[in-house]
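User: Hey, quick favor. My workstation is busy. Could you predict this chain's structure for me?
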Amino acid sequence: MEPEGEPEAPAMANLAQTAAMKLSQMSERSKQLGTAMQKPDRQRRIILVIVCVALLLDNMLYMVIVPIIPDYLAELQIEAEHARPVQHYNFTNGTVPKVTKGNFDLQIGVLFASKAILQLLINPISGTLIDRIGYDIPLFIGLNVMFLSTLTFAFAENYATLFLARSMQGFGSAFADTAGIALIADTYTEERERSRALGIALAFISFGSLVAPPFGGILYQFAGKRVPFLVLAVICLIDGIMCLAVLKPFSNKERANMPVGTPIYKLMFDPYIAVVAGALTTCNIPLAFLEPTIANWMEDTMNASEWQIGMTWFPAFFPHVLGVYLTVTLAEKYPHLQWFYGAIGMVFIGASSCTVPACKNFGQLMIPLCGICFGIALVDTALLPTLGFLVDVRHVSVYGSVYAIADISYCVAYAMGPIVAGQIVHNLGFVQLNLGMGLANVLYAPALILLRKVSQMKPSFSARDMLLEDGPTGLYNTIKMEDREKRRKGLCTTIDENGVETFAQRSYSEEESSGGEYA
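Assistant: No problem, here it is.
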């Protein structure tokens, strides 16, 4: 037995040595990967990916229920009225039993609007919290709540649970969307890079909103209600893990020396920010009001099939991406015309909205809908970076509250849409709804002329302090103001051998010769 065991010892030693070498190589590769991820350019790209996936998920979850919930609620209503097991009816082949609707439309409207309403209420809180604790923790919180919301959607069996899931999504979106956009603005500080990064984020938002209805409808029809939500839940989980690994939201970070952001209520009174917020609300009203009303209008006027209704908005994704690309390209060459791109976008939206009722078939309808999404891309891509620039030059470069205002602007439109649009169509008509939305956009476009001198603004402490009414806020601004005051008086700061700070009078010629600059 011993002669047979002797050759096994070297083999085991070789095997152990090989395993140790492989472990060492894996450890080295992990270190290299960690080092690569810590490079500024690489880390900025990873952050952009994390935020874009979060925005994609939020908008897919917002729109994926469009083809699912009406059918599912109808089944629940049949079960309640007839007290028998639910049968899955396929709305796509026209075999839908006639049921008494009652408050069915109101239930759908409230369910669709609940997300935007809760997001509207939470945004002032989330914006202030983001300014105080940073962007990473709120983003991670938002992703976790969205993950729970998606799972709740998947396993919901009644209207109350669906309403809870929709409201949870609004809560999570108030943190994830605002923190994500603010994180992009904070990460990409150069104006051209910021415009490009925000343009990419807007493209993901558009793709999520427009691809979600066909995605949800196809999976719902062939795989059941749970599958679309479970797919989104898995993607959300992966994005949350990436956020935890890259941003490290719960690591000990010193924020004592970080600037304190301007309170959100003071930002709202900034006239330039107010003009931008109004434009964001106005330009999104046509999309928010048409989404819940256009399906019935298409059925009544052009006998549209279910697949045509489901594909109504998908072709508009391509002009939206074109609008984002065009605006980013023009902004790099002519950055002082951002206000003009937004105004042109609002005119596009207004003209397109007015032509929607004149369409007689599905092909004709694609043209104004593509015009609306193209115009929205121009407005969003031009004005979102403008908000970041306004905070940089007129306030403190902390972006949570200002992008919370932007999110509030969107939510105002999408909260009113499912509830108000149906009443307007019922009382006044679909034609009047579109003419009113188009006229509102065309009339608001000239207001963006007030932003024409924004690109010429320089950081001004006096203007900012007048707006804040209470001098510099936070350690960063206090140090800057003190340093500015010393230089204005011609004082230079020196540290003696005992570590005591002293001041000495210094002439302008000495300051200029040493490369200094005066405020």
